[in-house]
Amino acid sequence: MDGFTRRGVFVPMLGGAALATASTQGATPPSPPVVTLGSTGIAMSRLGFGTGVQAARKTSAMTRKGFGRFVDLFRHCYDRGVTFFDLADWYGSHPYCREALRSIPRDKVAIMTKLWWRSDSSNPAGLSAEHRRRSAQAAMERFRWELDTDYIDMLLLHCLVKKDWVAEMQPYMDVLDEEKAAGRIKAVGVSCHDFGAMQTAAALPWVDVMLARINPFGVKCDASPEEVLALLRQAKANGKAILGMKIFGEGQLVDRREECMKYAQECGVLDAMTIGAVSPEQIDENLALMARYPAA
Questions:
Q1: Using one digit for the tens of pLDDT, what is the confidence trace for 246-296?
Q2: Nearest 10 degrees: CA dihedral of 91, 73, 140, 44?
Q3: Could you tell me the domains of the chain?
């Protein structure tokens, strides 16, 4: 049987072949458009390679395929024109990206990763501000080492789930500000898994980039499609760059993926989107879908 998982990707199980449409079989799909991410100045593909499929505690569907096969997915993406790599400490994808960068020019790709602050505590308010600062400083140094890079394009606070997150996150935010001022981060932001958290992010000047769950059916999203779209329009008006995730509803909408891609492309709020894939065929299908429904 077929399994579906996070990042809106079809995942074949029991050795099943990846789903492919007739338009992608034997054909090279068009490269995705190159966009400039809001006011950040970061140039990257409109489609991102999401590496968080079935991800937790530094493992994922990709890592379980083996080192070489995961690294090859990065290379396939780059060969197809996908220059936006969506990583996270929680996914364990840094070492694989590092290996891929041995043959991919670092200045030709945009790397986004995320700080899993829960590694310190599920209740960071119970830790001193200095503890949180030192943790963030150590993480930033470790991320650059794991990726073998002098800078990270986008660094997000990962998975915010309540409206009043700013006070708890402030020590982490202060360190990211320092990294940004030093040129080691180009843009900072958040990924949200709660509508109240999104509302706070949309209004907060600190946030450069919002990673938000969006699809036309509200599956695995934080509110109705109408509410999410209205808030993201407000965030965009406030100068935020908007990245979409859960485009296929964490895989639950894979049979309606054409409708989902059409919505993402035509909703008018997304600067780019990230979709997971565990095979070259899935990457190609996502590219073909994006080409079939050009952004409005």
A1: 999 988 999 999 999 999 999 999 999 999 999 999 999 999 999 999 998
A2: -120
A3: 3-292 (3.20.20.100)
